[in-house]
Amino acid sequence: MGRNPAESLKRAAEAGFRYVEVWTEPYEEFEGRVDELVRAIDKYGVKAYSLHAPFFGLDISAIDEDARRRSLEKVLRSLEIAERLGCSCFIIHPSSKSYHRKEDYEKAKLMLLKSVEEIEKASSGHGVRVSLENMLAPREGFRVGTSVAELREIAEKVSLGEVGICLDTGHTNYNGLEVAEEVREAGDLLAALHINDNDGSGDQHLVPGEGTIDWHSFLEALKDTGYDGLLMFEIYGGDHPEERLNKSYQTALKMLKELSSL
Asked: How far is CA 146 from CA 217, 219, 262, in A?
């Protein structure tokens, strides 16, 4: 969902979608339009299933404590909005930067765990599942959270044990990993999806079938792991958002039909 909440929800509803993920960037502008968003949700009958926490200029795994704290405070503010909207999932980026030194990367992992503990504590009892999204891997150096195995490691260390994983299929493909294998690695921790395609050269956010991802094996993996969440598409609308929305909707219907036949 884009910068104009009412218009974005209207387009999604007209295309046939019943659930959306709320995009919060630029965050200060978004915060000022939450009431408008609430009215639009009621008007168009589209449910906010998930909310993507802000991440522009933020890093909850920052090795500088002041930077981590500033980032965390904004993320926690957005969590309150997710709760107000009745969202089921709260998607967060585990990191924003890469490191050349392994020791800095390891420290960032510890800082991430510290942040996720605080976020999970704040969300407990409100019906919103905190979900860590897999990140784009740098071509050089180290970045926290680029594989499901690493996200699982973090999630399993959180004391309340309720943190899930949001698998971005495009990030997975760009990182040179098999999407179906990452679904299976996530297993019962798979809480949300960002479904999009690419050709492996960039984070292109194409409609499934326009890139190189093996979608049949992806659906088989979802079936095998018992995933019962939504197929949330995260597609770049470009200059023709209605056309991309309609194509995404038709593709989603085909995927659901194939999934039900497996």
From this structure: 21, 21, 29
Distance, in Å, from the CA atom of 208 to the CA atom of 247, rounded to the nearest integer, reads 10
- The neighbouring-strand residues paired with 167 are 193
CATH number at residue 234: 3.20.20.150
Dmax over CA atoms of the chain, in Å, equals: 51
Looking at 57-135, which runs of residues are DSSP E strands?
89-92, 129-133
**Domain range for 242:** 5-261
pLDDT in tens, 91-103: 999 999 999 999 9
Q: Average model confidence (pLDDT) for the chain?
A: 96
Cis peptide before 138 (omega within 30 of 0): no
Q: Is the pLDDT score of 2 beyond 80?
A: no
pTM metric for this prediction = 0.96
Domain count, the chain: 1
pLDDT of residue 6: 82
